[in-house]
Amino acid sequence: MQVLLIHYRKTMFKYKFEMLFRSIFIEKLRTKTFCKGRTFCVVKRPSLPHNHTYEVIVSKSNNIFANLSLEEWLFENRDLSKKSVLLMWKNKPCVVIGRHQNPWLECNVSKAVTMSVDVVRRASGGGTVYHDEGNLNCSFITDKCRYDRRRNLQFVIDAIESRWDLDLEINKRDDIILDKLYKVSGTASRLTRTKTYHHFTLLYRTDTDKLHKLLTSPFGTGVNSKATQSVSAQVRNMSDYATDMDFSSLVQVIGQHFHCGGLDQEFDQQRFGEIQFVDPTDNEIFPGLHKLQSDLENWDWVYGKTPKFWLKKNYSTVLGRTEFTVSIATEINKGKITQVDFTYLDTNHNDQMVNILANVRDIFIGQRFWIDDLEVLIHKLKGTVGSYGNKDLLNWILCCLKDTLHV
N or C, which end of the chain is more exposed by having fewer CB within 10 Å? Predict the structure, then answer.
């Protein structure tokens, strides 16, 4: 009996200890959060200070490179432990890809160049979006402990619905959806150890025809890439439902909502604040911003940062009485052609075929994967067609290569 009593007491002690530990752990979870990354870190979620301030900035520029540089400058130079920033801007037509994406697979690069539309790689992840002056961009630049994408999106929805009768909601991908169907906002973030920015689009009067044309890549089948791929969605402008909605009205509604309620305060309609309109090219106010812009505009950043990918296609033709079949596999890494492999049937094996393919391979390897550069190369090769003996075979190989590379 005594043995049973001792065992019972031990069991009860162990049970009480486990319950105490569990209650302490749950309480700590309520007051702490976990950071992303391999390192496990716990930061106390503070009761936010009353002296924390909120700043609303609107860029006067419509240059995507200047505006993304302004965002990065504010991110690097503001003391975000004391102040949260809401930056808003609009751009002239441009295509903005995520940090880990492939521009050739996300949009029609050639068409963008022809239409003088900038293609830009941003520092944040996420998918590709089209910007024009019918699209408002919002960026919440904050201390990391205030990072909450869904709260930011809901804040903007509340601001918009305070003025316009729209049915907006957030889906599982953190997009804002209109009428439970149409995407009006795509979202992306950048996080460091102590701070973050969360930015997203708001389509209110975008040229959707141009959007679809530019965001349709000519590269279809025969592509092997590990780059992050965008998820397509139906889009619609909010001004289809709210005809008086424009850039100025959105900036005022969202900006004053930010001042009245911030992201952490109780909403107070009487708390109005200044909306600052700034010129990001003013070097006295934003020293060093031009260097950030220069880096963003660099070809090696926009295109050279593209993850490695392969383009593969098969071709066949009859020249004279001989049937030729060839498979072309081209590797592009860091924006340059690093490998060109030709595979052909043994029946096509002859000195002319071997000579042509070897020379074409040597000339293309190391070249930038850029339409102007490749057109120059192809033109030069066509000019030397007589030295290869079989001009029809060379011209056909070049046509196949042009088709593979979409030159």
Answer: N
Q: Give tens-digit pLDDT for 384-402.
A: 655 556 788 888 999 999 9
Beta-bridged to residue 178, according to DSSP, are 168, 182
Query: Which residues contact residue 111 at a Cβ distance below 8 angstroms, ignoring those fewer than 6 apart?
Result: 117, 213, 214
What is the C-alpha separation between 340 and 361, in angstroms, rounded? Answer: 6
C-alpha to C-alpha distance for 291 and 30, rounded to whole angstroms: 42
* pTM summary value: 0.83
Q: How far does CA 111 lie from the centroid of its chain? A: 19
The answer to whether the beta carbons of residues 325 and 301 sit under 8 Å apart is no
Alpha-carbon radius of gyration of the chain: 28
* pLDDT over 70 at 72, yes or no: yes
User: What percent of the chain lies above the pLDDT cut of 90?
Assistant: 68
Minimal CA–CA distance to 28: which of 14, 40, 45?
Answer: 45
- 334 exposure class (CB count in 10 Å sphere: 0-12, 13-18, 19+): middle
Quickly tell me which residue has 């209650």 as its tokens: 23
The tokens describing 142, both together, are: 């904050």
Q: How far apart are CA 203 and CA 130, in angstroms?
A: 10
